[in-house]
């Protein structure tokens, strides 16, 4: 079972966290602190697994972001490594389509300011991919379809709201 | 403008990113948090939209790593918002900010439930996702039935059902009782027929969790898993979107294979065959390709297949194929594969047959110990540790020692501990062992715990041949310019005890020894000085005739320390000074330390603890061990004291505190009565333990001696904590009543000997377990472990007995004798008379079944431990069911045979009463485990059970046997059984055999065997051993 998912930038800034086991805030900070110390200092040609406090952590670096997943001792490491890649491909596809085909991690490092709610698509995508620390869907197409459906629901609500506020503002003029 | 509302957020994020340092960032965050807090507190109710805005900010702040300890309520309340955008934010933020233990979550249960049972699909998804990610026990209890319903509902779309499957998985993990096994097993099996691969993937994860807890109920899922694997392996009917780099869902393949690993075995030959075909295809067909992702995915599948092959204990050929693959992997350039190769090789060590083939890769593994990647080095170390045995210990340990100087700091402690354990376990000769440990102390003194050097001292004390060698080595190390303090301790101790054995060598006169040790005194800490003082006293004692000059120097030192501020040092100085004036009397008092009783190494335990990094946990373990060892001693000494025992267990537990006080007073009494200044100062932690031990003893022994004696007594126990170890080795106070003491000591050694003959585990249970499987432990006591591995082919069998000596001294006069019943022809190969220390010998055994019978062969096994003979009689698990082969027959065949075997003596019927009540499923799995294939659906009556099997013996041809059990649902304690076969004896024997199994369930535990009375210490094992009783009946 995947215990947690962490996205950490090369500078050690946390970009996303998700915890599938009950960690207190204190424990969370500790995991992030200690683990970034271990992972960010590893050289480029080493394996994608580190052992840390009885956990196994599978990680992979994409551009300036490290994707880390903490798993159980007996879990299949390569399987999890490819879940990470699968996730990256899903995000890539999503952000590629919304921000002129730029890789999504650039989106999240640079365009975060303007696109925070889009950025949160990283959360939605993760929720479509994993539940309870287990893989839920292995088809990129399906996940993309579901995120798009959510987006359109949000957009629809917005339009409704703005048309409503137009009506109100016109009425109160 | 849609974004305008979020401007505040954008500005905030931009501010944060422009902060030049952490300090500024914190200030900005605090300001924002203050702002949000006032907004939430303001009287005016916030709209859902406003709430959403602030909650987003909170999430962002939380993500930056700041503690957001308010506003949880607002986040949770958004869940009940009617509109999708707000609701979605509520769910996402709640599941990010809170964990399952937060009280606020409880407030949301009702809203969440409404979303789950409501008709809005998107709301259902949001709710299931949150519960699946952070749902706790309460959610589990109130939502599980609804979630189950969604999962199996035919009207729900896959996107809801796959979420329901994983949500249920979480709820099951929180409380396994919420999934009702009886009804659910069939549903689970149906779920595995699912066409949608998303739902199937999630359902398979659920299955893995279910079978990991209880595989019995889910046998019907086993063939389905194999079918899924076949479908994926052949790429049949897999939509393009579910192939990943050309591989049909690697994740689903891995999960299906994982689920199969929780079933103990696969009985059905057809299913087994198809599974092996798939596995073979994976093993052979996985190539290394350029694309990294494709490579990873295919190897994820391959490694899972390897694990499954190992689990199924496949044919030798396939196993060696696996080892060959792993051998290839550990040498490749790709670091992930190298890492996993090493890891899986370690797992493979569990399979006994492949040991030798793994050893062939030793050189490569040692190379990996120098890999640039610490993860890989760790794996290599683990593997080397696991694969080490007598044959390669020397090479491996020397490699480890060499590597020690270059190893990272993070690994040194583990490395030195492992080296020490291996050296101890597999030392080909003891002088090598001493060499290794001294080198270890020399190279990594900081990482060598006290346990390690205590252990060397024990070995040296117990082996006279070793003493001059160890003393000479210690002397050599003292010549080095800068040595570690631990080295000073161990050298000083060894030289104090044994330097007189070196007297004639150059540089080893008492005076020279003294001065080389004394040189170190200014450099050591106060814990080492007492050891040095003892050493001086011992050197003085051994210098005969006395050397006045040396005496003067040493006395001067004692004098100097008489006013030392450290109590321990002061006391020793005072005592030794007084004692050394006594001349010849000194000889008795400062005599060599007696031998330590054999015992299990504290190191091995430490190695187990090392895995758990929390100190607290190991402390708990240690405490548990202490309690265990106390209990053992107390009960064992009870009869030996000869006093009638009226006190029960409970009152015995109370004794420690009483005797603890008593101990203190006798202590004082001693020093006054004898006029010497000897007192004992055990560490507070061990007082209780010691008091416990002395409860019964103190009454018998002379009060003075008892106190002294405790130090030795403690060392005789298994699993004594290190504080007691310390007391045992470091001569705290030297004995005054040596003779009385020795008597007492002998007493205790005898009890110890008793202890060491006690079988570990229940022999009966071990036997029954082995009736169902083909490898495991048949017998174990503190000296020896007898393992067994069997292969059965028709009426023949080959059994290998593994005799493992657990001690550091050889076991002698080993004898094994088989008492075969008439129906078995058994040939036992030669059993060696001596088993070397820490070695394992294998004795193959050929078996042939001549005709059907339920009689059991008995192995009479004996060996000598010290002066005591240990003799045990063990039943061999070569029982009737081992000669059965499961077979499933069609209804036609069955009834044809059934009718042709018309009545006695070929067909026998009996009503059996007093049957252990079993449900039909339980009975089915019991039958299957005895290789009787249950054929479901053959009997029209659902309360009946029909089974078939083939029996092999030399006198009969392979014989089909048919069994029918008719149960009475109103009374499960009785049933009617009909057995038919072509041979009257077989019919009878099989009927009786099944009856025995039904009347007493083999896995049920017997009450523990009573402790053997100490009055007959010569042969306690025989009395408790059911095998012996049985042999008496034969």
From TrEMBL, chain A:
Leader sequence residues: none
Protein keywords: Cytoplasmic vesicle, Golgi apparatus, Membrane, Protein transport, Transport
CDD domains: AP1_sigma
Matches recorded under PROSITE patterns: CLAT_ADAPTOR_S
GO CC terms of this entry: AP-1 adaptor complex; cytosol
Pfam families: Clat_adaptor_s
GO biological process: cytosolic transport; intracellular protein transport
Domain spans labelled AP complex mu/sigma subunit: 1-152
Family statement: Belongs to the adaptor complexes small subunit family.
Stated role: Subunit of clathrin-associated adaptor protein complex 1 that plays a role in protein sorting at the trans-Golgi network and early endosomes (TGN/EE). The AP complexes mediate the recruitment of clathrin to membranes and the recognition of sorting signals within the cytosolic tails of transmembrane cargo molecules.
Protein name: AP complex subunit sigma
Species the sequence originates in: Salix brachista
Automatic annotation (TrEMBL), chain B:
Gene Ontology biological process: clathrin-dependent endocytosis; intracellular protein transport
InterPro entries attached to this UniProt entry: Adaptor_Complx_Large_Subunit (IPR050840), AP2_complex_asu (IPR017104), ARM-like (IPR011989), ARM-type_fold (IPR016024), Clathrin/coatomer_adapt-like_N (IPR002553), Clathrin_a-adaptin_app_sub_C (IPR003164), Clathrin_a/b/g-adaptin_app_Ig (IPR008152), Clathrin_app_Ig-like_sf (IPR013041)
Chain positions recorded as a 1,2-diacyl-sn-glycero-3-phospho-(1D-myo-inositol-3,4,5-trisphosphate) binding sites: 7-8, 49, 53-57
Protein localization: Membrane, Coated pit
GO cellular component: AP-2 adaptor complex
Top-level division of the source organism's lineage: Eukaryota
Comp. bias intervals (Pro residues): 1005-1015
Location of the Clathrin adaptor alpha/beta/gamma-adaptin appendage Ig-like subdomain domain: 768-877
SUPFAM superfamilies: ARM repeat (SSF48371), Clathrin adaptor appendage domain (SSF49348), Subdomain of clathrin and coatomer appendage domain (SSF55711)
Protein transport found in the keyword field: yes
Molecular-function annotations in GO: clathrin adaptor activity
Pfam family membership, one: Adaptin_N
Subunit structure: Adaptor protein complex 2 (AP-2) is a heterotetramer composed of two large adaptins (alpha-type and beta-type subunits), a medium adaptin (mu-type subunit) and a small adaptin (sigma-type subunit).
Role noted for this protein: Subunit of the adaptor protein complex 2 (AP-2). Adaptor protein complexes function in protein transport via transport vesicles in different membrane traffic pathways. Adaptor protein complexes are vesicle coat components and appear to be involved in cargo selection and vesicle formation. AP-2 is involved in clathrin-dependent endocytosis in which cargo proteins are incorporated into vesicles surrounded by clathrin (clathrin-coated vesicles, CCVs) which are destined for fusion with the early endosome. The complex binds polyphosphoinositides.
Family statement drawn from the similarity comment of this UniProt entry: Belongs to the adaptor complexes large subunit family.
Name this protein carries in UniProt: AP-2 complex subunit alpha
Source organism of the structure: Salix brachista
Classification of source organism: Eukaryota, Viridiplantae, Streptophyta, Embryophyta, Tracheophyta
